[in-house]
Description:
By secondary structure, chain A is mainly α. In chain A, 71% of the residues lie in helices and 1% in strands. The longest helix of chain A is centred in the N-terminal third of the chain and has 35 residues, at 27-61. Chain B is globular, with a radius of gyration of 23 Å. At the A-B interface, helix 2, helix 4, helix 5, helix 6 and helix 9 of A face helix 1, helix 3, helix 4, helix 5 and helix 8 of B. Chain B: The chain crosses the membrane at residues 73-95, 102-126, 138-157, 178-197, 242-260. Chain B: It is found in: Cell membrane.
Amino acid sequence: xxxxxxxxxxxxxxxxxxxxxxxxxxxxxxxxxxxxxxxxxxxxxxxxxxxxxxxxxxxxxxxxxxxxxxxxxxxxxxxxxxxxxxxxxxxxxxxxxxxxxxxxxxxxxxxxxxxxxxxxxxxxxxxxxxxxxxxxxxxxxxxxxxxxxxxxxxxxxxxxxxxxxxxxxxxxxxxxxxxxxxxxxxxxxxxxxxxxxxxxxxxxxxxxxxxxxxxxxxxxxxxxxxxxxxxxxxxxxxxxxxxxxxxxxxxxxxxxxxxxxxxxxxxxxxxxxxxxxxxxxxxxxxxxxxxxxxxxxxxxxxxxxxxxxxxxxxxxxxxxxxx
Amino acid sequence: xxxxxxxxxxxxxxxxxxxxxxxxxxxxxxxxxxxxxxxxxxxxxxxxxxxxxxxxxxxxxxxxxxxxxxxxxxxxxxxxxxxxxxxxxxxxxxxxxxxxxxxxxxxxxxxxxxxxxxxxxxxxxxxxxxxxxxxxxxxxxxxxxxxxxxxxxxxxxxxxxxxxxxxxxxxxxxxxxxxxxxxxxxxxxxxxxxxxxxxxxxxxxxxxxxxxxxxxxxxxxxxxxxxxxxxxxxxxxxxxxxxxxxxxxxxxxxxxxxxxxxxxxxxxxxxxxxxx
Lengths: 323, 276
């Protein structure tokens, strides 16, 4: 360590390495300061231009009426009042919650079951892992276009398969009650990443734990809830949070399947997710101020949900290793 | 592989699940080769082959342009984010500069920020710069690094023994030399992961092309595909065989990428959560 050598020679052998202490910063430490800042500078600049600045701008805009033709006009809390008066905002919000409430728990359970199966088949798991991840490579628009056909009420493959086991499938993409389940279905199809994450977590659980539990006479259920779930709780926690945040911002599928020039009035109310309505307000109606207020409401909601999840998570998540 | 009775139910279940995940893609390719009237028939091998669907996509829309656009934008976005994130990650991993912890905390917290909050002002910036209806807004922001990739790469850089850098210092290597000659080459697998992730993200993105592009010649593949779907929906008669063929064209490059980068991609996905 060159740093040690230089400091030792200049400050005498009794002085320990103290590059992190405040009062006296050696020229070397100051050089390191400069170098460090130089390396992180691209991100700092990008953060100021594309994150911090726009955040402030967006907050300011949210208190204005701005249609892009004229300069923004201050309207106080008007946009925020409108948020709670606009039935479509509330509808979009509730649709988004319903979609997330279907996708996140179902996705977690499906992915966990699949990952546990993969683990049990041993080496063949690699093949299945690849197969499960494949749909993740499909662009959202292509997946949505494909599912419009697969979920076709009369002739779609999904209903044909349901027919084999005697179920009369719904008119997925046209019946208002089934639009959100349709969207959730597309998301469940592209769940491979979560499976891969769980599989890695499961492979990290020490085998001895199960062997010891077996000796103590613990059954499959006890082992699952007392060993597997706590040991992979970090991965579960991570995916639940990221999947929830992603679900709250879902756009591609809903917009491809139900919006654009072709949008059907009947269908649109039930499939209107929050980001679609925000996008429409900003870039189709050019209500930039109102859309900014919508964005901040979404931010606050995501913050609250994540905060809640972290609070609950901290009580149950077990991290092996120091932390 | 011997199949014990205990494992049989698992294998059956997994086979069914594999079917559910993979079959839609197989179906898509098969349907893209059928005439419209037979798109919904059950045959995997089309009764009547109609590869002309692809010719008709070519004639109906500038698909070749869209492919080239997606490749260009994807490459620019991925290369920019990989290089810049690596430089920044090295800064956070190696140097103990004043303000580092605070700055890194800010970086981590930006990961939670929904894109919607910055979307409108960022659009106004590009609008001010006269960059609307160009592809620059689709990738230029990546030149400044991305929080998630910085975080990921920092974890990899931290894994490099510090002695290697100290040895290089002794040999007269500067800070940037340490990055370029030691950190960068040693983290190649991680850099490939970042490149592939971002390329895939860029290839799939619909929102940015919707916001920034108006001229069909500048569209990326997803934006173009959406245009095709909309066009048929507007005309009232669904020429689904063309939309399907276009979907296949949008998917295949990603499948090829996956075929080559499989190990990297899957191991990369697995580590993202573990590093967190």
